[in-house]
Amino acid sequence: MEILYNSTRTKGNPVTASQAILKGLSDDGGLYVPDRIPALDKSLEELSHMTYGQVAYEVMKLYLTDFTEEELKSCIAKAYDSKFDTEVIAPLVEADGAFYLELFHGATIAFKDMALSILPHLLTTSAKKNHVKNEIVILTATSGDTGKAALAGFADVEGTRIVVFYPKNGVSPIQERQMVTQKGKNTYVVGIHGNFDDAQTGVKQIFGDKELGEYMNEKGFQFSSANSINIGRLVPQIVYYVYAYVKLLEEERIKDGEKINVVVPTGNFGNILAAFYAKQMGLPIDKLVCASNENKVLFDFFTTGTYDRNREFMLTSSPSMDILISSNLERLIYRIAGNDAEKNKEMMDALKKDGKYSISEEMKSQLSDFYGNYASEEETAQTIHDLYEKTGYVIDTHTAVASSVYNKFKKETGDNKTAVIASTASPYKFTRSVMNAVDNQYDNMGDFELVDKLSEISGTEIPAAIEEIKSAPVLHDHICEISEMKQTVMDFLGI
Asked: Which of these is catalytic: 112, 204, 279, 287?
């Protein structure tokens, strides 16, 4: 049965999956959501004997209903291949009583690879299906990881160009180096004077500029997005939660139907929303533990029912979560508002105008699946240190936020169900913060010396993504003001 996609801000005008992927953002500024959440149509037992790619097909076919079996399987085969440094794509590692779902074995060693390896193929397939003749311009804001993963995914993909904006002083040195050394004739990386929210707002404004859209069309271009606002990013993320559950089942760590808890470090809310969708599909998840860093806007929302971005923006050791406007939360708000686009739009307008909105008690009562908490900088570092001391396992700062919050959750609730913690980045991506947490004696070492030391103490190989950038030349050194973002895009396109 076909699933269509509606905007979270306007009733009517549903589009197909491929049209939603192509557009990225709805014309009214809303996000596309499926008109219903499909149920898994294979048993957990059947899924437990499948590879990652096979599970991906069984999940994604239920959402992307206008893709043929051949089209979807081709996209999956091209995405989940030797780009990943482990055959199982997303291994589960047990450490100190929890299972860490390692989502960082792709080309750019962060979880964004899981979806951004397949998005270019979904997008180019969608363009063919809809007879698009324009060149597609991917416009993306990044807090560090999406940018590189999108650049790697779209580099030299025919019929596309990609522009990535990132906060010049708001990403780790290795994250920045990964982006500015990116090859590809169709790639463009720009640092902005501002934070991630400024970059994301600027990108949304460009998307919403109808005159610019018409002018671009005349010149043979059209915009699309690689951010998690694109439904083509969100659907592949559902897969790894299903995969984690059925692998635990296959390894007899849990019984069929036994509920697990899922812990996700999140800033933009997309990664935990994917887990929520997996639960709605019938995956036996009990609690969705939403872990924030010191930019704890989501923790405060789950505690009070008020979303308020009017606060100091904190630069932390987990920069991919340094976000005060969690775009994907809008999809959840729309759902708990009873799929009422008008009600949702009122709240999003209030967020834009006043920087905050509050949900009703009735809406709040529908958030019982979620538990929110946060970890301070000290707690994050302590968690890395303690887990290493206890087990020898080294995690990155974002995963440590999740691990720290999980410990608080257990202490607070006494809930000891099997837990899967989304391990969203390799510790090699944040070596200085990680190594300082393990032992501050390493602080006088250079970034790449720290990489070698991390390899030594963790007993893991240095990822190819890090080896590559050690000597790679800087190819992108453009910096602009927030007000210059639109002109910067036009200059890159030569229009």
From this structure: 112
